[in-house]
Amino acid sequence: MGTVTFDGVGKVFPDGTHAVTDLGLExxxxxxxxxxxxxxxxxxxxxxxxxGLETITRGExxxxxxVVNDLExxxxxxxxxxxNYALYPHMTVAQNIGFGLKxxxxxxxxxxxxxxxxxxxxxxxxxxxxxxxxxxxxxRQRVAMGRAIVRNPAVFLMDEPLSNLDAKLRVQMRAExxxxxxxxxxxxxxxxHDQIEAMTMGDRVVVMRKGRLQQVDVxxxxxxxxxxxxxxxxxxxxSMNLFQGEVAAGGMLxxxxxxxxxxxxxxxxxxxxxxxxxxxxxxxxxxxxVPASSGDDRPRLRGTVVMTEALxxxxxxxxxxxxxxxxxxxxxxxxxxxxxxxxxxxxxxRSKQRTMIVARFPAGSPVRAGETIELGLDLSHxxxxxxxxxxxxxxx
Amino acid sequence: xxxxxxxxxxxxxVLLLIAAVALAPFxxxxxxxxxxxxxxxxxxxxxxxxWSTISENYRIVMHDDGFITYIKNSLIVTFASTALALAxxxxxAYAFSRLEFRGRDNWASTILSFRFxxxxxxxxxxxxxxxxxxxTDSYLGLILPYIAFSxxxxxxxxxxxxxxxxxxxxxxxxxxxxxxxxxxFRVMLPLVRPGxxxxxxxxxxxxxxxxxxxxxxxxSQDRGTIPIGASSLLTTESPVDWNIAAAVGILTxxxxxxxxxxxxxxxxxxxxxxxxx
Lengths: 396, 277
Prior knowledge:
Strand content of chain B: under 5%
Helix content of chain A: 25-40%
Number of helices of chain A: 11
Number of strands of chain B: 0
CATH superfamily of the largest domain in chain A: P-loop containing nucleotide triphosphate hydrolases
Strand order of the largest sheet of chain A: 6-7-8-3-9-10
Number of domains of chain B: 2
Oligomer: heterodimer
Structural class of chain B: mainly alpha
Distance between the termini of chain B: 32 Å
CATH architecture of the largest domain in chain B: Orthogonal Bundle
CATH topology of the largest domain in chain B: MetI-like fold
Largest sheet of chain B: none
Helix content of chain B: over 70%
Strand content of chain A: 25-35%
Number of domains of chain A: 2
CATH superfamily of the largest domain in chain B: MetI-like
CATH topology of the largest domain in chain A: Rossmann fold
Shape of chain A: elongated
Number of strands of chain A: 20
Radius of gyration of chain B: 23 Å
Structural class of chain A: alpha+beta
């Protein structure tokens, strides 16, 4: 049915930009696959190549095992939801939803029946006679969804469909789209810039960077075992703490002026055992950093609290530690994608050779900005990356 | 409050002045067209409202001088040229706005530059070409050059209108099952209707008033358009009957006046829609 295959797909724009390079990917029938990455990573181009809105420079795309490279969009049995919805301004909601059916030669009564059916599912019944300009953002979004669903295509393509909605509506529509997709079991390729959308919606998530696939896996694996520094710093909010450490003799890790005992066994220890005497990037997610207490034997790291953010159910504690930050092309790109200030922070850390890390503390933790605290690190969940290649140690 | 009042007064005075300057010639024309020949040169000028004189003046123009034929010719030539210019220019503008092809921007500006040239510069070659293909003194002989004159304007105005429509609409229509051509007709044309009206209006005004090229190509009375006919009435009669000439002038203006009153709503909306929105 609706499988989609990318086979060595490449896209080079006339100006020489390599938007997508050697993309190989298999989307299973009924799967919800999310393409995620910073702006300009090629995710939208990849999607538009499936839609037939962008030519394919190299390789092959197959939908249901049929090569579609030279097929017009209308012959690909796909439906697409666009970032700005792209509703036809001169048509009513009903006409918008029914347009595709009309184009595919359905009779008037059949179009009407299907439109009404979809309108009921999407709660658009009262709006069918309205023009798009008389709709709210959320309503337009639903009409755009309806236009895609009504055709019952082999594949849904969604290009950042929620990015124009406000935060609350976005969460709501996220659940709605997931629900609809689960009910219809239609193969879906969903492009987003928002890694939370990617994590919550995707059966599998593809992380892309500069036109290349970085990692593809189920969200939890992506989170727990990022393949490289880029995925590590891009996925997760707050993102994974990264700092440099030197693998010292005797199962120790030298972090700045402090020395941490490595766990005796586990993947992390085995990975680092091969790196004796070398500098590596150490990645620890915020939830694996807890207030140090006298009873435990976790390795400890001292630092100065710079800021706390109480979120109600937890406190995010920003701590500056004496360690060199991980500044590579990957982390720079992710910082740049956040904003210019994030990049400036990273540069400042590099010049001071100190790193800001974030810890998730239980709500009500008595921590104040300015004080020095001891953090307990659960290194059994830590990741190590090669500083030069950016790849996870022990991967591949 | 008083300041605002003063401001309004000033702006009304200015508007009245502009109106006076613009309307005075027409008013004089109208008054002269109401007079008998003998009264035209009266000093000081006097007002005459003698219905028999008025109807006689206009009857002479309409029937004896065949002005009705000129109006008919003008209507045929103007509407045919505009319709054809739109039929060619609108799809061309869509292509310029959406498709990637070699030298696209150069072509677009070249087409506009055709418009910089005054018709007088090309009147003679156009006449020779039309004569060569044997179309002098025919509607088609007028329509062809008029299409060429109004096309650049149509293309340029329409590019602006197409550019304003998000490309995602094209994409959506193609995914929904349209071909490029299908999407142009089913989705784009309804959306650029104000632009089509605006370019049609500008084209029509130009063609309606065009004189020089028409003068070369048309040499019989029964194919002449209004400007050609009017000029022949004014120049071939000797001595000139000013009252008749004035009636000709009024009749030349009236169709355009009615037309612009009908479409002014569209002109304003179209111009503002095409530029800043």
